[in-house]
Amino acid sequence: MVPETLRELLASARSLLLTSHANPDGDAIGSELGLARALTALGKRAVIWNFHPAPTLYRALPGHEGIHVGGQPPPGFPSAFDAAVVLECPSLERTGLAERLRELPLVNIDHHLGNEAYGAVNWVEPRAPAVGVMVAELAGEIGAPIDEATADCLLLALVTDTGGFRFSNADPAAFRAAARLIELGARTETVSRWLYESQPEGAVRLLGEMLATLRRHADGRIASVHLDAAMFARAGAGAGDSEGLIDVPRSIAGVDAVALFRELAAARWKISLRSRGNVDVERVARDFGGGGHRNAAGCLFEGALESARETFVGALARALELADGD
Length: 326
What we know:
Layout: H1 4-12, E1 15-19, H2 26-41, E2 45-50, E3 68-69, E4 83-87, H3 98-101, E5 106-110, E6 121-124, H4 131-141, H5 148-161, H6 172-183, H7 188-196, H8 201-211, E7 215-217, E8 222-227, H9 229-235, H10 247-250, E9 257-265, E10 268-275, H11 281-287, E11 291-293, E12 296-302, H12 305-325
Parallel strand pairs: 1-2, 1-4, 2-3, 4-5, 5-6, 8-9
Antiparallel strand pairs: 7-8, 9-10, 10-12, 11-12
Helix pairs in contact: 2-4, 2-5, 4-5, 5-6, 5-7, 8-9
């Protein structure tokens, strides 16, 4: 249920800054763009500011070109904004913009377990299948119309955060939300084309580079892959072209957990974790300062690749043991 304090704040605000976590995913981008469109339809100003650009996969979404990107704030900050709305981000530090965002009143809208309740207003619904679904509910509560393009953005948020309705959060509420968004005009064919039929050539070549690194562990139940700077260069790919690639090793029969190690800088790695069923990778990521959901989570790691592989394969093996004991 949308808090009354949130409805009151949005009713009185004239100009809002929207943001999400660094390295934004589909739920982050879809929710931001969807909420920005809903607020604009009410006559309010909404500016999106993200630390990192959107992955290539999401650059077809309407309004993407207007996102302000980088460490420097948009013009007029902070005086031009009444509040900052942080979407799909369990801690303010994960935005990459925490120090500047604290200059504004904060609204925290999220569905992650372990959210730190860092806002002056907090709306956290761990049972929500995606923040995009929460944005759709919020739009209804504040009387903001959802048009076709807005519904498209929010449906993409839902599809990506449920893994195409394959993850454990693809519950009846997720399908009801999808049906409602389609009733509001979301185009399933368009969203599917954006996600599954619009890959740049570099992303496809990067997939080949990644699969060449595939290893199996724990009697084949764990898979690990990595991507380093040289692989991106050979593929002609950018950082955003790795979005979704982890789902390929996850699809291997018998694999219950996957770790993807993506090089950010020398001896610095972004760790993406995926799993099936009740194998809890959120707990693994949280132990290393990250977070996410039971079947999809991530964190950062400092050290050599083999050290990262040994650390996280071991952690995933323990997660398998815990799941087997349930």
